[in-house]
Amino acid sequence: MRLSAGLVESRARALLGQGDLALELAQETMAAESETASSADLSEASLRLAEVYQAADRLHEALDLLTLLDERGEHWPTRALEVSARLAAVRAALGDYEGAYAALRRHHRQRAAHEAAQTKRRVAVLEVLYRTREAEGEMRAQVSLATELDSTITQLVESNSSAKESALRDELTGLVNRRFLNDQLDQLAARLGGPSTISLALLDLDHFKAVNDQHGHLVGDLALREVGLLMTRWAPPGATTARLGGEEFVALLPGMGAEDARLAADDLRRTLAHHRWPPELGASRLTASIGVATVTGPLDPARLMRRADDALYAAKERGRNRVVGVQVSAHNTHPAEGSTTAS
């Protein structure tokens, strides 16, 4: 019995946890449908096959198939975003961090273009509606509609995070930038009126100037990009990871208490300390000092950042490659400190 590409997609998804069975089904049906299925169906089945390859740890075969799909992305726009995201993940798993970063950047550009096109279409509809009612000659209706139009466009712009992201993302590492982080903190401060717990981890690479001086800024940039990838992999659910500038990074951890945040930060510290860095760095071993501040109660973004910076300074004073945590509450002006030693 010949199976349709759509049915293969469903069956392959259901069998992803069954390894060879899913792979055999996807491969055989791809061959059977190669001459009769539509381009969209074949692309859909190809993506599912790449997913099975990835799940089976056959990463090079997944990479070849995803690269082909990525080249045909203009003919298959509805799945281009998924292809570029999966391509970035596979390249990162193979250790091609530069290729992964390029694929991730392309993914964000595609998302921004897609969201911008949707916004443009919606605004065009609203403009037609406005002109139609304007012809009625009723001043009150015109004023009311203008207010409605302005409110709707504002909501579209605020909800269109992908389009906005292009201006709020650090081009080198792919992480969000300081402006995005500040916006996130302001939104949390406005939304959280009652008791709440938020932690912020401020990270600074130890002696990074020596890397630039010894190997040059291009190698330094390569190292910073890799830090961005490692932080993206490490980030707990709901976290926001950002690059503030230079070799300074930050992780915003809503809902995470002081001890959990300190342990999470130490996990990131150990990940960096034991990471196998690109050969361009030679024998250089990158480590990081991390300051963690936890606030319980009303959120004051400036105070939270300042206390994290104090903790980071303490980590450097105690020998670097360590985590120092401070806890700040609305009723405690001299918070207790905790630290994790280097290992």
Automatic annotation (TrEMBL):
Signal peptide limits: none
Domain GGDEF span(s) in chain numbering: 196-328
SMART domains found in the cross-reference section: GGDEF
SUPFAM superfamilies: Nucleotide cyclase
Family annotation (Gene3D superfamilies): 3.30.70.270
InterPro entries for this protein: Diguanylate_Cyclase, GGDEF_dom, Nucleotide_cyclase, Rev_trsase/Diguanyl_cyclase
NCBIfam families per record: GGDEF
Name of the molecule in the record: GGDEF domain-containing protein
Organism expressing this protein natively: Arsenicicoccus piscis
